[in-house]
Structure to design on (402 residues):
């Protein structure tokens, strides 16, 4: 590596250390990163001059002079994050700590042409930038998370079953409109980036993110890095066939996990059974068949409705079988779940843990923990914003290098 590359690497490591650990002293940083104190002094001063970090007071003395501590300036830079979901679109602006400083939720639009959807998303981004309290000059870029097979390098949505879209180019048009670096990822892979750098898994090297909403997505992190596979499509847990004679999936196949255990699948099953005249409180809670949602089914199951319990238990067991297989195969530390279905809380996780334990290989994943993302319904949007924030750190804290 040449001198310039080493300088960027050192800056990245220092910035990443402060991001992960909070207020830190120069000697501490130097010791933990294997750098000289003068090198860390030069880097920290450069970041102070850029307005990226600041002095936040003295630390505890270990016998000598107390060290001066440095921490990130949260609003030094910002990032836009857009979660394009099947039922809603969430747009946020997040600061350097991935804290949401602006948020708005929009109705999603499915079954429309590529040009109409792209125009809609572009208008949402424009409104987000204009209405955010952040100075537009501090907004480094735009991150987008979307379900489906995404070519992150070319910025193309190759196939999104939730939207019925194929071969949709999205990045170039947005970059032309706003003149800002724009990145797109499969939505659950974006969530995994947010979890790794700002969430529950900051100190975890091997984990699985599972998105449980209208559909089911997943993302794999191994040895601290997002595993994308040969073409970047790894992690389509929702489209593993669980029952070859199962219901038809939006992807065109039959018996996919998504066709059995997703929010859409749970609602569909409940509609069919209520429509057949089975006695269930699901219909009473919803008002009419067309208004039945996954939440309605979970609410009825929690109240002990037999039909709802059978639907929910079936969905959770198949999900547990799939996750048990992933634990057995990858020896995971955490399974982090996000999405609308996770609002069921312990009603979901207690049952899921039981099924995972029942179906995984003995001794495999003994320490694996199933947890719900601390970011709640914002997990995907924060993950999308984190694509830009992480890129900024990787570039040594230089927004112009994005």
């Amino acid at each position: 590596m040449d001198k310039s590359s080493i300088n960027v690497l050192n800056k990245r490591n220092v910035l990443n250390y402060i991001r992960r650990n909070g207020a830190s002293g120069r000697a501490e940083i130097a010791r933990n990163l294997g750098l000289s104190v003068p090198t860390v002094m030069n880097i920290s001063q450069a970041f102070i001059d850029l307005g990226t970090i600041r002095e936040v007071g003295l630390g505890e003395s270990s016998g000598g002079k107390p060290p001066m501590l440095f921490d990130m300036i949260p609003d030094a830079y910002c990032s836009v994050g857009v979660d394009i979901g099947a039922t809603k679109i969430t747009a946020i602006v997040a600061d350097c700590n991935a804290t949401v400083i602006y948020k708005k939720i929009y109705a999603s639009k499915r079954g429309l042409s590529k040009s109409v959807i792209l125009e809609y998303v572009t208008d949402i981004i424009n409104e987000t930038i204009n209405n955010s309290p952040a100075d537009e000059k501090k907004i480094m870029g735009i991150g987008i998370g979307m379900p489906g097979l995404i070519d992150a390098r070319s910025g193309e949505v190759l196939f999104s079953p939730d939207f019925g879209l194929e071969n949709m180019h999205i990045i170039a048009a947005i970059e032309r409109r706003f003149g800002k670096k724009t990145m797109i990822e499969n939505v659950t892979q974006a969530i995994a980036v947010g979890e790794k750098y700002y969430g529950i898994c900051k100190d975890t090297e091997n984990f699985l993110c599972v998105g449980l909403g209208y559909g089911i997505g997943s993302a794999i992190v191994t040895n601290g890095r997002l595993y994308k596979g040969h073409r970047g499509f790894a992690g389509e847990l929702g489209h593993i066939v669980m029952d070859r004679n199962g219901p038809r999936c939006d992807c065109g196949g039959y018996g996919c996990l998504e066709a059995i255990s997703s929010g859409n699948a749970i609602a569909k099953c409940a509609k069919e059974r209520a429509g057949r005249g089975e006695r269930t409180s699901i219909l009473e809670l919803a008002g009419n068949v067309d208004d039945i949602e996954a939440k309605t089914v979970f609410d009825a199951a929690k109240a002990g409705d037999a039909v709802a319990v059978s639907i929910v238990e079936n969905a959770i067991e198949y999900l547990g079988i799939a996750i048990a297989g992933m634990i057995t195969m990858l020896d995971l530390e955490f399974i982090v779940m996000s999405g609308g279905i996770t609002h069921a809380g312990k009603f979901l996780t207690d049952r899921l843990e039981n099924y995972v334990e029942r179906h995984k290989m003995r001794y495999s994943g003994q320490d694996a923990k199933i947890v719900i993302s601390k970011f709640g319904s914002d997990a995907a949007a924060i993950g999308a914003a984190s694509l830009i924030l992480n890129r900024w750190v990787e570039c040594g804290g230089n927004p112009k290098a994005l």
User: Anything to note?
Assistant: DSSP finds 13 helices and 16 strands in the chain. The mean pLDDT is 92.
